[in-house]
Amino acid sequence: MKLTLKIWRQNSPKEKGAFKTYILDDASQDMTFLEMLDALNEKLIAENEDPVAFDHDCREGICGSCGMIINGRPHGPGKEITTCQLNMKAFKDGDTIVIEPWRAKPFPVIKDLIVDRSAFDKIMEAGGFINTDVGSAPEANTYPIKTHKAEEAFEAASCIGCGACVAACKNSSAMLFVAAKVSQYALLPQGKVESLQRAWNMIMKMDELGFGSCTNTGACEAECPKGISLAHIARLNNEFIKSGFNKLFADKH
Amino acid sequence: MIELNSKIPEGPLADKWTNHKNSLKLVSPANKKKIEIIVVGTGIAGASAAASLGELGYKVKSFCYQDSARRAHSVAAQGGINAAKNYRNDNDSDYRLFYDMIKGGDFRAREANVYRCAELSNNVIDQLTAQGVPFAREYGGTLATRSFGGVQVSRTFYAQGQTGQQVLLGTYASLKRQIAKGNVTMYPRRQMLDIVVKDGRAQGIICRNLLNGNIEKYSAHAVVLATGGYGTIYFLSTLAVNSSGSAAYTAYKKGAFLANPSFIQIHPTSIPQLNPYQSKLTLMSESLRNDGRVWVPKEKGDKRNPLDIPINERDYFLERRYPAYGNLVPRDVSSRAIKERCDAGYGVGSTGYAVYLDFSDAIKEQGIKAIKSKYGNLFDLYQKITGENPYEQPMKIYPAGHYTMGGLWVDYNLMTTIPGLFAIGEANFSDHGANRLGASSLLQGCTDGYFILPYTISDYLADKINIKPLSLDDPEFQKSEKEVMDRIDRLMNIKGKTTPLTFHKELGKIMWNYAGMVRNEQGLKQGLKEVSELEEQFYKDLKITGSKHNINQTLERALRVADSFEMARLILHDALNRKESCGAHFREEYQTEDGEPLRNDEEFMYVAAWEYTGEDKEPILHKEELKYEFVKPTQRSYK
What we know:
The complex is a heterodimer of chains A (253) and B (639). With 253 residues, chain A is α+β, with helices and mostly antiparallel strands. Chain A is built from 9 helices and 7 strands. Chain A has 2 domains: 109 residues, Beta-grasp domain (Ubiquitin-like (UB roll)); 136 residues, Orthogonal Bundle (Fumarate Reductase Iron-sulfur Protein, Chain B, domain 2). Helix content of chain A is 38%, strand content 11%. In chain A, the strands form 2 sheets. In chain A, strands 2-1-5-3-4 form a 5-stranded mixed beta sheet. Chain A has a two-stranded antiparallel sheet with strand order 6-7. In chain A, a hairpin with an 8-residue loop joins strand 1 and strand 2. At the A-B interface, helix 1, helix 2 and helix 3 of A face helix 3, helix 6, helix 7, helix 12 and helix 13 of B.
């Protein structure tokens, strides 16, 4: 099939970017979206052009590397998929596809469709872990955990850190990302101990890095490739408010 | 010539590790601060090693090519992680896990290493649970387990079909914690292109910064490679598309021996290739064979809808051939059985290269809900890729390149033949023999990184506390840096017509045809010829556009493909040399009457460790004899 691709090209963080239009004559509905971009890049190399740069690795929807705005939607059309899982069957001959990088201030564009998501790593460093040393772990069955709690924690933990939630949010908030981690640990006895401090530290870091506030519109949940629920944001708010009260109380003494 | 000394400790099997630990030298906390360690790779092995070493107080530098440590391909492991907890009271034990791994590896692994892995398995589950890894639970709140191939107990811990993701994120979290504490410095988006060896010791690495193309130098007292396997040698594999054996190959070129490179696991249950554009294959977890039954029609070329084929016209060939283990035979055995049926004309799907994996009986017996809670995300993944609903019709699956048992040769301390260069996880060869049992790669990654390397590396470092890391201005660093720059320029300047992706696809075809599931002498020799011809073509006709001073993914791939040719030749050499069939290495010439692999213990009960001797020169074979003191190697039978 023949496609018209309008792709954001930007050579470096400092240079200005612009959309560039390419015609791809021999795309196939059997391709995945990234295989279609591979085909475009092969063509660009043949024409002595610089191929389009984009992050990708596992190509099975679990590493979280890939991510682009396709026709205005993070990871393109389709529910609960990553860009690498998007199939070209979602498009038809003659379509025009607009492809952009994540648009969010805390995720500056590095080149073409690649953005810098190191802010997510910094948020994780602010508290996305349980303070336990190797060697000090008790026997694993010491903590009995209800099946549904374990499953809910798993659901939160299935976040792949792709950044679609931030890209979907009009405020570029990272609340769903932070909530997924805080919620996973808050649901488990191992993580409960430090839960309030963790929520506080991660939210403070998120603010500091320039992510916006959450206004509960739910765009993040709608675009999350792993279907992570807004309910986790409610739990995060709960932990955060409690930690705020604790701090207030501690300050008075 | 270097003498191979595996340093396996004396004494009874169960005491070896304890005795050895007691003899290892320590580094005091005050001195650890002065010691720098480079860890390349942030999968479970690399992340757990970097985190543990940081926690101990060493100064650690951690490198990965992805934008974040969390993306390493351990993330894609699905089914689970083994441990001998014996929670099911099914008479499991360290010994039994050890025996299953040794037997599963077709008696081509070291007893002592494998026993240590089994012995530490319970600590791994404790550690991961304490870190908040949300393993599946029974209704009473205790940890759930399931069965995996090649075993008769239930010892596999899991988090739906995303166990690798959860374990990786657990190790990533412990890595983040040490980064926050300042014990580990993270260097993402770096491609390691050389290892600096001076005075016979590994003392640093050279990387290309993938963001700006700068060639960067890093020095340390020791270098740890946790760089995974080289399954992308087949181009299409279950690996991440940017995974490669480049790091192991670089170490090999610098003098580290590569062991058993031809031992490559072909995973039986992957979604088959659907079209010629495909860039990778997606695995369907082995855990599915707990409840899924594998079959093909009894009639050749039967094109009926599977639902219309009555039970008595189906051939459940794994259950037929291997009644004791049925659908849960090890991976090498099931892969070959699937290939055999398809080659004989019984395969299904548009290409005839697929078999059914059918859940209808399990759904009838247990209900949709139970199946969904065990495999829901795998079924969704399958449906997303194929557009077919596995709750309603059987999956179609076919084997795909997956895991490399072979890798850098290491001694019992996980050190390669280059002092100061260590290899852990899939990057080394040590624990899986000629075939890896399912759910033991996450296990080995964690035992190596959390519990073994942190002890053994101190023994190496103990007498280096007063030595400063090598100066970045040292001639050896400058030499390596120049070599790397020249290599990049050479590739950029060929200015031919063919892209690295095309070359990679071609190489993949050669390797899959001649060094895939079934091999023979003639094919392997043909493979050697074709790889060399392709390499020659590569250096004449490669085309890269864009700049070397910016992000350039074409150049990144070209560098990996350039390394793959020699790696491919080494795999073919090793397969040619091993005139027997064992585990995943199946030579047509050596099989039993009923098509099972025929081992030759008298001549080949050794680890084949290859030494690099220079460009265009044949590698030299070193043999590490495998001595079985505690188990008696038998012909592996799953019947």
